[in-house]
Amino acid sequence: MSYDDCMVEKALFPRALSIEAIMAEKSHFLLGPRQTGKSTLISQSQLKALIFDLNDERDFFRIGQSPENLKDFVDGTVRLVVVDEIQRAPNLLNQIHNLIETKDVRFLLTGSSARKLRQGGVNLLGGRARVLHFHPLLMREMKDSFNLARALEFGTIPSIYLSSQPRLDLEAYLGTYLRQEIMAEGLVRNLQPFRRVLDIAALCNATIVNFTNVSNDTQVPRTTIYEYFDLLRDTLIVYELPAWRRSRVRKPIVSSKYYFFDIGVARALQRNVGRGVAPLEQGHAFETWLLHELRAWIDYNQRNETLKYWRSQSGFEVDFLLGDHTAIEVKAKKWITSTDLKPLRALRDEGAFKNYVCVCLEERPRRHDGIEILPYATFLDRLWETEYHGG
């Protein structure tokens, strides 16, 4: 299946995010890694908009190199403007800011990196546009076409999940990221040390990163390692999951954990794609995939929720804490024992959460010692039905 064939995405997988609904309220930045489907979402929407694609050299020449020209295209009939790949011309933000203020025009600005936008001097339009993150495909979007084994091995970037050659396409994806996002934008001076750190970062997926060890393994200074991880966050490749620090009964670990936005990308960097997901790898793969689902639920519903994890210095760990109400332990197991629930019981001693859930591969929901044990599909259905919430 070719890349063009994969872009019949609307017919196969309608996305959970309504771009029309969010643009009815306010201007937005829609930020997401490359090939997650931002441009496809816009092209298949019902938006009546003036569209500029800054990857198209004609549009880049028209307004990217000469931002003052933008106002010439926005006459009294234009109410909505889309600028795709806005990070290629962050100097446009001043002109966009002015048009929002003076002509009451709404803008949808898509991009795959927040770094150059923040350097544009407008601080993401000073609150005049909301920031919304876009993600790879979700289970609820794929419905009966969803296959967990495929998602855990190859991830859910649309063009890769649908590909007949996903391993090759993942390698091409990484090459595109390094060439276009990193080299072409001049985000690092020397690509080779960055590539070494990227490979090690993938091996550290779903873990607390020891930056000293990464520095020793890559022979890259520790200060540079921190800069590279900042770059991975800014280009939306890596997500930092902070630690929950309000534990009173047991002293908590305070270091963050790091996850790649897509398990297929992490596995490609680990050189594991194409061999199936080994039992020792399945736990982190399942955990990374579920984090992606949780983040998309928060972002697409624009919920005021935080995601954190908890780990005590005595060794108990709960994978995800959703807001101040739901603790989620993730187990890639077909049968959950009482031992598997020890971390949730330890966290329950803190008295801080309302719901305690173990998401797993069991076939039927059940309850044990006050803890819900849920098949992953059941949990996600209940999540989108807003069964888990504060208050």
Tell me what you see in this structure.
The structure is a single chain. Helix content is 41%, strand content 17%. Residues 1-11 have low confidence and may be disordered. The chain contains 19 helices and 14 strands. It has helices spanning 3-6, 9-12, 19-23, 38-43, 57-64, 70-73, 92-103, 115-118, 139-142, 148-154, 158-161, 166-183, 191-203, 211-218, 222-234, 263-269, 279-300, 342-348, 376-384; strands at residues 27-31, 50-53, 80-84, 106-111, 129-133, 207-208, 238-241, 257-260, 307-311, 317-322, 326-330, 355-360, 366-368, 371-375. The strands form 3 sheets. It has a 6-stranded mixed β-sheet, with helices on both faces. Strands 2-3-4-1-5 form a 5-stranded parallel β-sheet, with helices on both faces. Strands 6-8-7 form a 3-stranded antiparallel β-sheet. It is globular, with a radius of gyration of 22 Å. It has 391 residues and is of the alpha/beta class. Helix 10 (148-154) packs across helix 16 (263-269), helix 12 (166-183) crosses helix 16 and helix 13 crosses helix 14 (211-218).
What structural category characterises the helix and strand content? alpha/beta
Overall mean pLDDT score?
91
Order of the strands making up the biggest sheet: 9-10-11-12-14-13
Major β-sheet profile? 6 strands, mixed
Uncertain ranges: 1-11
Give me the count of strands.
14
| Span between termini | 47 Å
Helix % is: 40-55%
Helical segment count: 19
Identify the notable features of this structure and list them briefly.
6-stranded mixed beta sheet; single chain; 391 residues; alpha/beta
